[in-house]
């Protein structure tokens, strides 16, 4: 196992356990106990995750050149039905900005504009487009569909997410 993978797993373990000690939490006690990242994702609300990712995930903090390969790997690992949900969420939010599915299909070179028929590469292109051009939509979709996050492996990405989560968990006391 690579050190990058070990680091990501440790960050996610710390996140799942609510470990905030390394961030100078006032009492050093964990704010909440989570069994796994899935437990964290299920027990937190979309609003809580939206607040958590609000400032952490942006092209200013993680360059597109670093985030895009991570998104490709992560999206390839999520279940097809979750991938469909992610695509639908991106299309929904982008449509609110005046970008329809057919326009995005042409602009991004997608194989289809139907979320249920998109492959992992199509969803990755859509996610990368949102990350680069509409980071607020990217954060919103991650708050709504947090399953992608557990598959991000880059230590910088995992570290930023872990730090943001630990700060949020520490603020819940």
Question: What features would you describe in this structure?
Answer:
63% of the residues lie in helices and 0% in strands. The chain has 173 residues and is mostly helical. It has one domain (3-170). The radius of gyration is 16 Å and the shape is globular. The protein starts with a helix and ends with a helix. Residues 44-70 are annotated as: Disordered.
Helix and strand arrangement:
Elements: H1 3-17, H2 37-43, H3 46-53, H4 64-77, H5 80-96, H6 101-108, H7 120-133, H8 135-144, H9 155-170
Helix pairs in contact: 1-2, 1-9, 3-8, 3-9, 4-7, 5-7, 5-8, 7-8
Report how far the terminal alpha carbons are from each other. 35 Å
The number of distinct β-strands equals: 0
Q: Helix share of residues?
A: 55-70%
Shape: globular
Q: Please count the helical segments.
A: 9
Quick summary of this structure?
Residues 44-70 are annotated as: Disordered. The chain has 173 residues and is mostly helical.
Which descriptors would you attach to this protein?
single chain, 173 residues, globular
């Amino acid at each position: 196992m690579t050190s990058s993978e070990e680091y990501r797993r440790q960050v996610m373990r710390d996140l799942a356990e609510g470990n905030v000690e390394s961030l100078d939490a006032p009492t050093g006690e964990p704010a909440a106990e989570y069994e796994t990242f899935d437990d964290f994702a299920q027990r937190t609300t979309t609003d809580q995750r939206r607040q958590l990712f609000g400032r952490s995930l942006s092209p200013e903090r993680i360059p597109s050149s670093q985030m895009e390969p991570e998104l490709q790997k992560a999206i390839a690992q999520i279940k097809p039905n979750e991938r469909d949900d992610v695509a639908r969420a991106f299309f929904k939010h982008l449509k609110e900005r005046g970008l329809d599915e057919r326009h995005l299909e042409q602009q991004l070179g997608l194989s289809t504009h139907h979320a249920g028929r998109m492959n992992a590469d199509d969803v990755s292109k859509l996610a990368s487009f949102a990350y680069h051009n509409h980071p607020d939509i990217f954060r919103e979709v991650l708050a709504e569909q947090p399953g992608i996050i557990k598959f991000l492996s880059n230590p910088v990405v995992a570290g930023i997410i872990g730090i943001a989560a630990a700060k949020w968990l520490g603020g819940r006391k």
